[in-house]
Amino acid sequence: MLKSPDWHLLIVWYFFLGGIAGGAYFTAAIADNFGSPKDKSVFRVGYVLALLLVSVCGILLILDLGTPSRFLNMLMNFKFWDPMSIGAWMLGLFGAFAFASSVLSFVAGPGMAGLRRRLSLIGTIAGFFIAAYTGVLLSATALPFWREARLMGALFLASGASTGMAAIALLLYLFGESTGEGYKKVKRADRYAIMFEIVLLAAFLALLGGAALPIVSGHLAPLFWGGLVVVGLLIPLVLEVSGLSLPGVVPAALVLVGGFILRYVIVMANA
To answer: Taking the model in full, what pTM does it have?
Structure first.
């Protein structure tokens, strides 16, 4: 009999915050490289948010492993065949890029700006890995449901992009930047990210077929349909498209709730 890993909420939070970190860094890099000077607040918030969250992810991973020495051992002894070792190394690498980008975002000068932009494009690759590899890791197991979920990595990546944009929009709103051009661009981009995530989720379920029963029926179904699909995806999208005069914090917060629920139901499907 296959035994499910002894995972709990620490891992769910690790998956969730790692996705936001990767999505926030990607959003910041796009704003930095292809935006205007008016987007400075977007990439500053995105880089710093990615740094803070990847630091929290490191702490969560250490707590899950039990002792800091186990985490340090994975960093000092790289094993290309061990997904956990690869994940720990990529977490450290992404953290280094997020730190450099954060520092350089507050340093003036065209030379520093050029260096920051080049670094961010490379760092985005590490950010994408952090956002997606947890889904790929789950789908590579022999456990039911996970092994059939071939689009899980892509779905986690799309969710990471959406939640990363939502987190930046939420912070910009709280910092009083809701009238800025950068805020409007992030909100507009998140609208399309949500649409893409809905399409991927539909394809994910279609490919799973009957194997999707652990999340679409039973005790996880209310969370999946009500929490993820309705609250986390459809309502934020309707609010954004309709232009209803609700505080900008509402749709962003709902997207973040949906991103957490997505990872929760998938991890707990084999609990």
So the answer is: 0.91
